[in-house]
C-alpha cells in the first residue's frame, strides 16, 4: 500500500500557483494590447481590398459583429484562392503569415456562431436581385445534391443515392448530406449560358432520423416549396419562374405555384 500511494502521488499534477492581483491585471493588459494589434491588422487588410470586393463584403456582413465580419472577410478572400477542400484550416494555410491573431478565433466564427444564416441569405439574395436582376421575372433552378461527409459525429448524415454514379442497372449510395439547393439564374455578358448562383439551401434528413428526434419529416419537394415561399415573402412584388427535374413534380408544389 505505501508503494501504491507513492506511485499515485508521483503522477499527480502539480498544483498551479495562483496569480496575484497585479499579475492578473498585467495579463489582462497584455491580452488587450494583443487584441488591439490584431484588430488594427484586420482593418488594414480590409482597406487593402479592391473597391467592388470591399463594398460586396460590407453589404453581406451587415448581420455580423465587427470582429466576426473582419475575420469572415479574410476567410472569404482566402476561399477564392484555395484549391481543394475549403476548410478553415486550408483557408488559413493559404493565407499563411497574413493571418493575424490565433487560428482558434477564425474557427469560432462557425463553431460558436451567434449570427443568423437566414439573415445572411437574405442579404446575399437582395444584393443579387438589386444588382444583377433589377427588373423582369426572376428565373430559378431547384435541385438536390449529395455531399459525402463521413464521421461518427456528423449531424444529419445518411445514406443517399448518388445520381451521378448511378445507372439504370446499378445504384450507388454515398454517406453524407443531401442538400436541396435553390439558385438564381443570372445572365452575364461574357457567356451565352445562364449562371446559377445558389442563394438558399436546406438539409434533407431521413425519415428514420426525424422519427428518432420527433421531428416532422419533409421530403425534397417540400423543402423546395419552403425555400420558394421564403423568396416570395422576401420579394412579394417580383415574379419568379422555377424549373426542377422530375423528382420535384408533386401536386403539393404545383398547387403552391398555382396559388
Using brief descriptors, characterize the structure shown.
single chain; 259 residues; alpha+beta; 2 domains; 10 helices; 17% strand; globular
Concise overview:
This protein is α+β, with helices and mostly antiparallel strands and 259 residues long.
Distance between the termini: 82 Å
Coarse structural class: alpha+beta
Number of strands: 5
The biggest beta sheet is recorded as:
5 strands, mixed
Gross geometry: globular
Radius of gyration from CA coordinates: 25 Å
Overview of the structural elements:
A hairpin with an 8-residue loop joins strand 3 (173-186) and strand 4. The chain has two domains: 33-115, no CATH class; 117-258, no CATH class. The protein is built from ten helices and five strands. By secondary structure, the chain is of the alpha+beta class. Strands 1, 2, 3, 4 and 5 form a five-stranded mixed β-sheet that branches. The protein starts with a helix and ends with a helix. It has helices at residues 2-11, 21-47, 51-60, 66-81, 88-95, 104-111, 117-132, 207-212, 220-234, 251-258, and strands at 138-148, 158-161, 173-186, 195-204, 240-243.
Amino acid at each position: 500500500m505505501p508503494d501504491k500511494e507513492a506511485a499515485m502521488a508521483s503522477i499527480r499534477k502539480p498544483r498551479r500557483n495562483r496569480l496575484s492581483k497585479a499579475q492578473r491585471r498585467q495579463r489582462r493588459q497584455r491580452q488587450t494590447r494583443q487584441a488591439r494589434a490584431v484588430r488594427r491588422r484586420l482593418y488594414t487588410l480590409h482597406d487593402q481590398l479592391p473597391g467592388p470586393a470591399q463594398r460586396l463584403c460590407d453589404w453581406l456582413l451587415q448581420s455580423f459583429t465587427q470582429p466576426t465580419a473582419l475575420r469572415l472577410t479574410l476567410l472569404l478572400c482566402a476561399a477564392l484562392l484555395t484549391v481543394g477542400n475549403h476548410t478553415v484550416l486550408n483557408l488559413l494555410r493559404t493565407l499563411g503569415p497574413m493571418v493575424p491573431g490565433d487560428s482558434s478565433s477564425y474557427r469560432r466564427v462557425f463553431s460558436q456562431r451567434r449570427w443568423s444564416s437566414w439573415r445572411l441569405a437574405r442579404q446575399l439574395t437582395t444584393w443579387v436581385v438589386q444588382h444583377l436582376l433589377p427588373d423582369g421575372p426572376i428565373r430559378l433552378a431547384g435541385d438536390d445534391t449529395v455531399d459525402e461527409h463521413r464521421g461518427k459525429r456528423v449531424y444529419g448524415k445518411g445514406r443517399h443515392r448518388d445520381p451521378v454514379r448511378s445507372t439504370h442497372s446499378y445504384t450507388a449510395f454515398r454517406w453524407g448530406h443531401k442538400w436541396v439547393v435553390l439558385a438564381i439564374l443570372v445572365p452575364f455578358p461574357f457567356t451565352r449560358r445562364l449562371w446559377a448562383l445558389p442563394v438558399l439551401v436546406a438539409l434533407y434528413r431521413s425519415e428514420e432520423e426525424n422519427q428518432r428526434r420527433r421531428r416532422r419529416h419533409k421530403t425534397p419537394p417540400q423543402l423546395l416549396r419552403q425555400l420558394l415561399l421564403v423568396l416570395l415573402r422576401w420579394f412579394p412584388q417580383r415574379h419568379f419562374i422555377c424549373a426542377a427535374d422530375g423528382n420535384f413534380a408533386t401536386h403539393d408544389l404545383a398547387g403552391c405555384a398555382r396559388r
